[in-house]
Amino acid sequence: MSHVKSLRCRGCGSDYPVEPLNVCEFCFGPLEVSYDYDSIARSVTRESIEKGPATMWRYDDFLPVDRKDAVDMGTGFTPLVRAKNLGRMLGLDRLYIKNDAVNPTYSFKDRPVSVTTTKALEFEFEVLACVSTGNLMGSVAAHGARAGMKTIVFFPASLEKGKIVGAAVYGPTLVALEGTYDDANRFCSELADNNRWAFVNINMRPYYAEGSKTLGYEVVEQLGWKAPDHCVVPAASGELHTKIWKGIQEMTDVGLIDRANTKMHLAQPEGSSPIVEAFRMGSKQVRPVKPDTIAKSLAIGNPAAGPFALETLAATGGTAVAALEEEIEEGIRLLAETEGIFTETAGGVVISGLRRLVNEGKIGRDEVTVAYVTGNGFKTIEVVEGNVRPVHSAPNLDSFEAAMEAHGA
Ligand SMILES: *Cc1c(COP(=O)(O)O)cnc(C)c1O
Ligand SMILES: [Zn+2]
Known about the structure:
Elements: E1 4-9, E2 15-16, E3 31-35, H1 37-43, H2 46-50, E4 80-82, H3 84-90, E5 95-99, H4 110-122, E6 127-131, H5 135-147, E7 150-156, H6 161-168, E8 173-177, H7 181-194, E9 198-199, H8 205-211, H9 214-222, E10 230-234, H10 239-253, E11 263-269, H11 274-281, H12 306-316, E12 320-323, H13 325-339, H14 345-359, E13 369-373, H15 397-407
Parallel strand pairs: 5-13, 6-7, 6-9, 7-8, 10-11, 10-13, 11-12
Antiparallel strand pairs: 1-2, 1-3, 4-5
């Protein structure tokens, strides 16, 4: 049973009915799903959750839709991997990687999209749409296919081939737009006003955002019902960072855990780091930038949830760090070579951001630290292609030995 009370404005607190709405008509603030936490507290226990499916849907009491209706491809409950090798290199004894690169469409976006597609069917939409920095469109196209909906996805034409091909295969209408993601987003807001479409990250955004909370619940459960000391989260719009924290806080609100003293850190690529910039200036507002980064999944210059990410940083004592552009590939390789996990550029940003946080003394050796790996490396192979230098040999011993010697292997 859903425990949703209303949509509530994050600016002025006005309540709205549970409809496809995302903006307050009084103050233009974003709307967020609000719940009856007493009712959730009465219906969930650690045992009831542990008896649920091994997917994100084990937490449906905290979501705006029931799992019996879910458009569910088996998303979530992904591995929390103890990273001893990487930890040893960085000087951390209790480091974990939350490997969300193994979801059905290979990014964490399957979580918010699974929730939104379910809600879109409940609202009787026939068309599912989104504007994407890359991973979202693959997830929307897959869920749309599964739900039997017409699907249309908008994206900046400059995205990586792996992301475009990986969305096209599900049969959506693809619209490549000139310009940046922020240009595309502005245009899509106009389209959302003029069409009866379930625009996943526009008119459906309040429901979409809720799906990311499951990345908080899972980590707490997987650590044995304990909140970590540190989370390191990649940020584009800043929504994921804020919602992981909302999820962890909800677990204390309903009594599943006693307390959470988690520091919520955030990482952006240097070439698209407006939230980090605002954090450094001590500002509560984010000044938009024009992104220029190889981490295209994080290339949002005008982040919708930027101010909330800044609040989350302040409330938890977290730090915002930027990874230098040339460190991103290093981060990808470091994670692959130490832990056998192949992440995309966003994960490279997180691993180099983590290294910075340790070097700056923000994370102590014995503190429980979780780095979120949110997307799969096979979608951005162009970034690591330069490392491919095979030994070329004919299939006989003489040629092989000569080739190996020439290669210095
Ligand atoms: C979309 C995305 C993010 C950032 O999400 P926001 O909620 O917009 O901050 C992080 N990592 C990957 C791989 C993404 O695709
Ligand atoms: Zn308002």
